[in-house]
Amino acid sequence: MSGSISYTLNSGNTIPKVGLGVYKTSPEVAENIVYEALKAGYRHVDSAALYKNEKEVCEGIAKWLAEDPANKREDLFYTTKVYDDHHGYELTKKSVAESLEKAAKIGYIDLVLMHSPKSDYEKRHGSWKALQEAVAEGKVKNIGVSNYGVKHLNELLAYKDLKIKPAVNQIEVHPWLMRSELCKYCHEQGILIEAYSPLAKARKFDDPDLQTLASKLGKSAGQILIAWSLAKGYVVLPKTETKARLVPNLEVFDIKLSEEDLALLEKPNEYFTTGWDPTVYPLDDEK
Ligand SMILES: NC(=O)c1ccc[n+]([C@@H]2O[C@H](COP(=O)([O-])OP(=O)(O)OC[C@H]3O[C@@H](n4cnc5c(N)ncnc54)[C@H](OP(=O)(O)O)[C@@H]3O)[C@@H](O)[C@H]2O)c1
């Protein structure tokens, strides 16, 4: 099943290449769209404490698990994030405990991320210590970061008590925000890139080069963008709360983009962000 096609993380665990994003998916909608996504073949969901839908996302997963003994928890991958206002050792412990409580019906969390580097050295360090302990305690399987720039990763990798390297760095990346240097650095460090806002929030669908490729390959603009992330070797997290888009957004594994196609699509000199960009957040000595 295409939804279970996976990469292997530096932890040795696997992660399905396509995950359903649920940012801005309201609690009222979350349970059902997650349930429908799992029925449609998705095996990976990306939430966050900030999204205020963790409980409902996990309800959707639990409903699917309860439906058929063939539906197995170990085949699924559930991610959540610690938000910036919960940086520091104690607050991160609390945030993880709260996320675990909301995930009680599904037993454990596959991946917990630092949502961004937006605090200070002391707090980031304390958070990482708490995340490492969560893995040691067994209820969190992998840990990683989001929105970290090279400088934040360098800081983390130099922690004296570093036991676990981040498994992933979840960043906004698409053909209009290539972040080549950061992606190369992560690749060299064995940190997998997760592409968020991979559809550029549907704001670039009228790009003429994207339209040309979509017509040539007989695919939609959205499918081409998801295939682009896969061609780069990234996990890709398209968000939809439209049931009819779930299956098309997963039917992307047969799309082969040639070097020529990639060159047409990619705009390495553009810097098109659709939201925040904490990868440039200053270190303490830059403030
Ligand atoms: N770590 C971070 O800081 C961070 C930041 C942003 C996002 N994320 C993660 O990444 C996920 C995806 O990013 P995102 O939600 O910002 O944006 P996105 O996935 O780039 O785009 C989502 C938008 O595209 C629409 N859409 C989805 N599939 C489509 C299709 N096939 N054709 C046309 N429109 C389509 C959706 O509409 P409908 O829903 O109405 O279908 C929605 O408006 C998030 O949900 C979240 O899990 C993480």
Automatic annotation (TrEMBL):
<dbReference type="GO" id="GO:0047011">
    <property type="term" value="F:2-dehydropantolactone reductase (A-specific) activity"/>
</dbReference>
<feature type="active site" description="Proton donor">
    <location>
        <position position="51"/>
    </location>
</feature>
<dbReference type="InterPro" id="IPR020471">
    <property type="entry name" value="AKR"/>
</dbReference>
<feature type="site" description="Lowers pKa of active site Tyr">
    <location>
        <position position="81"/>
    </location>
</feature>
<dbReference type="InterPro" id="IPR018170">
    <property type="entry name" value="Aldo/ket_reductase_CS"/>
</dbReference>
<protein>
    <recommendedName>
        <fullName>2-dehydropantolactone reductase</fullName>
        <ecNumber>1.1.1.358</ecNumber>
    </recommendedName>
</protein>
<feature type="domain" description="NADP-dependent oxidoreductase">
    <location>
        <begin position="24"/>
        <end position="267"/>
    </location>
</feature>
<dbReference type="GO" id="GO:0042180">
    <property type="term" value="P:ketone metabolic process"/>
</dbReference>
<keyword id="KW-0560">Oxidoreductase</keyword>
<dbReference type="Pfam" id="PF00248">
    <property type="entry name" value="Aldo_ket_red"/>
</dbReference>
<dbReference type="InterPro" id="IPR036812">
    <property type="entry name" value="NAD(P)_OxRdtase_dom_sf"/>
</dbReference>
<dbReference type="InterPro" id="IPR023210">
    <property type="entry name" value="NADP_OxRdtase_dom"/>
</dbReference>
<feature type="binding site">
    <location>
        <position position="115"/>
    </location>
    <ligand>
        <name>substrate</name>
    </ligand>
</feature>
